[in-house]
Amino acid sequence: MRPELLLASLLTFATASAPAQWQILDAHTTASLRGVHNVGQGIVWASGTNGTVLRSIDDGKSWTTCTTPPDADKLDFRGIQAFDANTAIVMSSGKGDLSRLYKTSDGCKTWRLVFTNPDKDGFWDAIYFEDHRFGALLGDPVQGRFVLFNTRDAGEHWERRDEEGLRTDPATQGAFAASNSSLIAWTGLTHRFFVTGGTDGAYIHSCNGSLEPSADRWEATCFRTRLPLARAKESSGAFSIAVHETHFVVVGGNYKSPDRVAEGAAWSTSGESWDRPSSYPHGYRSAVAYDAPSKTWITVGPNGTDISTDDGRNWQALKPDTKAGDAPDADQNWNALSLPFVVGPHGRIGKLRPDALHQPLTHPTKRLATGNW
């Protein structure tokens, strides 16, 4: 979403104490980071302002600053999707042709411009790859429809889906380019989900169809469902969505009021009907992810980190464990997740300690909504 479009009700709460245990890493950059992708086997990529792309091949112990893509020194790389240690696609966000995709195949020594936004009023928000071939690209509405491109050849070519179900009012709805996690795929190639916000409220959009090579084009049906998040504002809505098996969690809020505890999360067991949690994250949250080993959902934002061990029904604030070596602000100032890694402003990169989510936690106090919305 554009900066002017780029958390929910006032609540009273008691914060339970538990260690976040983010280990702060040194990436030798001052760029604001919003893109991160942990490929596995020690390979991690990150991206941010001023054309910055970072890569680690030793599980975050050291970071290499990549060659800046051509004519990209002033671009804001809000999303990155990597395939291995050598291959990645980075997405910049900006109006019109400031939204671009660059691809590297040689470990970020060189880059190719593979796609530029064809819409002068467009703005790209997120990029997601299901595997090495199939990917999707989400943009704010153009001519009354959300923009959804798809690729079947690892990002070399992109096809726009002009689906009636993507229709919306661009004055009241948009996506947020906050963490490259407003767009996901589910059950292989057949489902795409993205979340939005704005003065018309928060929504989840579902596009169901096939991207198989045998099809001449991507045939799909798209529809939207309202999410039970906070009262609609231009700067509020759903910012991030994650899924584990059949369980979905959405987080967000109002990015202009990051400390307001509000209706900034929702959960679903199907992706169709959505419920409010009994207790909420304690502020605006820009990213959410699931940690399978500990069966824990984790969400981050400017003022802290929260976890849920009951599939999003209750959230608990985490605090740093200074005795374990955490920095005093280790739980704060984060934008995006690709577990166990987290990134934020001013070159902040953290890594979740291996035992951080395997400790007994106290139950949060139930928070009740107050105020007029």
From TrEMBL:
<keyword id="KW-0732">Signal</keyword>
<protein>
    <recommendedName>
        <fullName>Photosynthesis system II assembly factor Ycf48/Hcf136-like domain-containing protein</fullName>
    </recommendedName>
</protein>
<dbReference type="InterPro" id="IPR015943">
    <property type="entry name" value="WD40/YVTN_repeat-like_dom_sf"/>
</dbReference>
<feature type="signal peptide">
    <location>
        <begin position="1"/>
        <end position="20"/>
    </location>
</feature>
<feature type="region of interest" description="Disordered">
    <location>
        <begin position="354"/>
        <end position="373"/>
    </location>
</feature>
